[in-house]
Amino acid sequence: MSLLRYESQVRPPIVDGSKDYHQVTEDICAPVEAKPTKAWWIGFIISVALLLFGVVSIVVEVIYGTGQWNLNKTIGWGWDITNFVWWVGIGHAGTLISAILLLFRQGWRTGVNRAAEAMTIFAVMCAGQFPIWHMGRVWDAFFVLPYPNTRGPLWVNFNSPLLWDVFAISTYFTVSLLFWYSGLLPDLATLRDRAKLKWRKMFYGLAAFGWTGSTKHWQRHEALSLVLAGLSTPLVLSVHTIVSFDFATSVIPGWHTTIFPPYFVAGAVFSGFAMVQTLLLITRKVLGLKDYITIEHIEVMNKVIVLTGSIVGIAYLTELFMAWYSHVGYEWFAFKENRVNLSSPYGWSYWIMMGCNVLSPQVFWSKKLRRNLLLTFFMSILVNIGMWFERFVIIVTSLYRDYLPSSWSTYYTPTIWEIGFYMGTFGLFFVCYFLFSKFFPVIAIAEIKHILKKNGDNWKEGYNKEEGQNYDEFAHDNVHHDDHH
Amino acid sequence: MGVKKFVVGNFYDENVLFPAVKKVRRAGYKIHDVFTPFPIHGLDKAMGLKDTSLHVAGFIYGITGTTTAVSFITWALTIDWQVNFGGKPFFSLPAWIPITFELTVLFAAVGMVLTFCWLCQLAPFIKKDHFNPRSTDDTFVMAIECTDKTNEADAVAFLNSVGATEVSVQYRETGWWLGRYDQDTVKYGKKIEAA
Asked: Which residues cross the membrane (chain B) (predicted)?
């Protein structure tokens, strides 16, 4: 056993402090079992207020139509689709952490995966709002589903990227939810078995589905997690690829490029990790989980941010180069005049994007800065501002000047209801996150226990002896020769 | 309803649990189950459990999704109602790949989770008994099922000898795993009288 559990001292511990299994349960369940703090209530009430602002904005939009937004003749997509792509992108980090890093056997994911998966689900919920309410006649939203109807039946256009989006986003939401909740079952059972109050016994008894921790169940659970991870990995790549097809399959200058799918996926992971940093830096502090979400976790995620930020940077430069190299006049005009030219109406947004996404993450080449929490928090916000502007640049600067100068649109600024809708999704996101962090364990308890004896601080110290041994001593001490099989 | 008798012991260390599982099986006792707070790799093999075929089920569900998507879209766009989209062929398979892929994943994931819940008999409101509520916290709980031939005192002594602590004899109604949260069911950790 000890041979199987051994891990080199070169890797830093990912659970700090002196922990045993029971202490892990106590630490992670403590914030769930305590009364909500004042800070929680303040945050929650602000989120509810934002959510209500969003509800009012949507009500206004539904009653009076999308004319309540400043969309115009050529800018048919503005803030709404910018926000849609932004939120979908944020969701991607959760799946990356929970699925791809599971396949790569990255132990550090256990500290952050549960919260990141929750973030994915809430972000996709927010993203879904935009195309739905953008339909205007939202009561006809079910027209996007292929169901036998009295109009022929006239089927939906299966060749259209917008329909692919319907399937991609709804599948992504469903699979993420199943993955997240099946992972939660054992932890909910832990909470159920610790519950003292009657409503807690009821609530967690319902939520835990009768989980017992039977060995056979664990065997199936492991198989399920592995296959769901295997399915989610291509799924997450497909989702933002399909979102990028919304643009790439059109003939609009600035959209009609083959680089979009990988470029969108890298950008999605980039912004998603930034959002994970924002949430977890607050969560670990407020809920006192610094032993589980350690500085090592923060540093690793900053490495992902500098990597994906640089990929995004290369993509920006490549599409700029290709616009010039292609000798397509419209394409080059869109880049040169609508984006790069700082004195053009939207030139400022291109340079905000470049500054926040390409230049600023480069500070994370320095180890000292990667481990600076205040800087990380600041950067995580900056990256998400930059990534919002990326989508704004793609959508608005490509649309506002059409092929015919006579149809060039007037300067587009959002109305209060467009802003309110966006703020409302922040409300929705944080209301969900606050409720999640109050009623559910924000760290995967069972998974932490699973890696504790390999990666825990106090357990790793026990391996100092092995570290000093030569191979023969090590094998002699650790390999058990058992004649019975 | 029948009642079964179990000898239940707690373990606090995997390094004790693994040899104990082997010894108990070698001695001929029937392990009802071992309840653990987290998955312990290799324990299923040590207990002699067969591999799960959940992956195979997932594969079949996935293939079902693929076939559903391709056959439905083909029927809708080439037979039922042909629409000329920009002069492209009615049967334009490359454009259907995204939806085919999504439905493959959706069918596989939903199907597998439902199968998982069915096999493990998990659903909202279901109440089961795992002999010791600490088995979802920090304890590995082994339950040995007593058959007609099992000598209870011997089993208790044996379980103690392989490193188990707080060994006890517990009775459970057969079929308790389908019980629900109501007054008739046995609460966690409480014993019921033998019939």
From this structure: 54-75, 95-119
The reported pTM is 0.89
Spell out the domains of chain B, with CATH numbers in brackets.
3-49+126-178 (3.30.70), 54-120 (no CATH)
**Binary contact (A205, B125; C-beta < 8 A):** yes
The larger pLDDT score, comparing residue A359 to residue B149, is at: A359
Domains in chain A, ordered, with CATH?
2-460 (1.20.1630.10)
pLDDT band at residue B180, thresholds of 50, 70 and 90?
very low
Q: Is A412 helix (H, G, I), strand (E, B) or coil?
A: coil
User: Which residue in A151, A206, A216 has the most chain B C-beta atoms within 10 A of its own C-beta, making it the best mutation to test that interface?
Assistant: A216
Q: Which of A220, A231, A449 sits opposite B116 (nearest CB)?
A: A220
What residues contact residue A37 under an 8 Å CB cut-off, 6+ apart? A286
Predicted local confidence at residue A481, as pLDDT: 59
Angle at A29 between CA A27 and CA A33, to 5 degrees: 125
Q: Any chain A CB within 8 A of the CB of B35? A: yes
Whether the pLDDT of residue A465 is over 80: the answer is no
Which chain A residues are closer than 8 Å to B181 by Cβ?
Answer: 202, 205-206
- Give the whole-angstrom CA distance, residue A198 versus residue A180: 26
Q: What is the pLDDT of residues A103-115, one digit of tens each?
A: 888 888 888 889 9
**Chain B residues inside the 8 Å CB shell of A484:** 22, 26
